[in-house]
Amino acid sequence: MFGSIDKSKGLLFVTNDLDHSLRATIQKMHQEIEGFDENRLLNTAPEDLKRYLVEKYSVTPITLLRDQWYADHHDAPVDVRHDPMRWIDDRSRPAMVAGERVEVRVPFEGEAELFYSKANTFTMNPPRASIEKNEVVLRYDTPADQPRDVRPLVDRVLDEIEQHLGWQRSMIHAHNASLPNTVGQTIHERRSRLLAQSQRAEALGIPIRRRANAQNTYAVPSVRRKATPTLPLASTAQFKPEPVLALELYEHALKIVQDMALVMERSPDAFKAMDEEALRQHFLVQLNGQFEGKATGETFNMAGKTDILLREGDQNVFIAECKFWKGPKAFGEAIDQLLSYATWRDSKTAILVFNRGVGTSTVLSGIDAVTKAHGNFKREVNWPHESGFRYVLHSNGDKNRELTLTVLVFHVPQ
Asked: Which has the minimum average pLDDT: 71-85, 225-239, 289-303?
């Protein structure tokens, strides 16, 4: 449609095709993931890498800050050679007369390159303006003997710019909305390929000499961003696959714990005098009934003892602490205790909070605040539950080794 346009001529929304640029942005994201050193990729927590790439390749639409606009005017010679109402001897040469220049500047937020990107919907008569840093600049030269009101002209051009920006926003919103799934899937696919290749290489039984990275291919232009986020830190040492614990088993253990809590609520007299150890034993009985006697209490593990430890083979499938609610400080110490004896295999953990006499909302808000302020906190997981939370924390000393922590609050009769 439109060819390449020199930006100095002031035509907006014609230089690049926005749809092509957004697709090029996705392609560049794929190329970056494929270009990562394989050990660097495998040693990076997938969710951290996903967050980095989503931030890097998302696009910020432009918003005009019309409430912050301002104007300036000053004397300036004006070229009137193209004015048909004036007699000009030679219209091929500038004909300068006294006049004034009015400049209207409108600040904006967003990515300036979008002013030169054409949306799928557009007009054949695009607006004109100059883009200087974070401002749209409109200039009007007027002869002193023919003064004119430029406000209607300014309003018309800004309205046209807003129209084009509106057409862009729907495309940008669709791009940003689909980006997390696209990035996550691309990371998952390359990780899966690398792990499969590693297994095949080991099965081959022949030393592997790794080929040096090939030269990067030419990348088509993409939408330029204002800033580049920081890539998560990770080791490039040889990646060693580790057992992946089944989420289904974790959820099943939590379901047993929650069913036991219902028994407590329905038979309050039987539990009102019990301490932490006695309550824990009831949970162990139920877990052992479902997991063939593999749940133990007060088991030594790493740097301490855990209240409930469920093993499958040599893997710690479910590891939990039982605590009465004694305030935010004590709960923070419970998190520290859990982390202190969790090994890398303990990726599924829980804290069971027994509450007597304190408002449930107070306990829940305290848990959420303490966990999110903890030095090992990474993110909250969307896990709708009326009396619990789920978080991801990193293990002590390694931000790429992640632990899932589920906190459940149980009302214990007084």
From this structure: 289-303
Which residues 6+ apart lie within 8 Å of 134 measured at CB? Answer: 107, 108, 109, 112
All domains of the chain in start order, with CATH: 7-179 (no CATH), 247-411 (3.40.91)
Q: At 369, which helix (H) or strand (E)?
A: helix 360-373
* Residue labelled with tokens 């740097």: 303
Residue showing tokens 């951290």: 48
pLDDT digits (tens, 9 = 90+) for 135-148: 999 998 888 778 88
Tokens of residue 272, six digits: 């009102």
- Per-position DSSP letters for 342-355, written without gaps between them: --TT--EEEEEEEE
Burial class for 349, CB neighbours closer than 10 Å (0-12, 13-18, 19+) = buried
CA distances from 1 to 16, 123, 265 (A): 10, 11, 71
Measured distance CA(307)–CA(288) in Å, rounded: 14
- Checking DSSP bridges between strand 295-301 and strand 304-312, what pairing results, if any? antiparallel
As a whole number of angstroms, the distance between CA 48 and CA 52 comes to: 6
Name the maximum alpha-carbon separation found in the chain.
109
State both tokens at 50: 């996903």
User: Could you report the per-residue pLDDT of 169-217, keeping only the tens digit for each?
Assistant: 999 999 999 999 999 999 999 999 988 887 766 655 555 444 454 333 3
Q: What is the pTM of this model?
A: 0.67
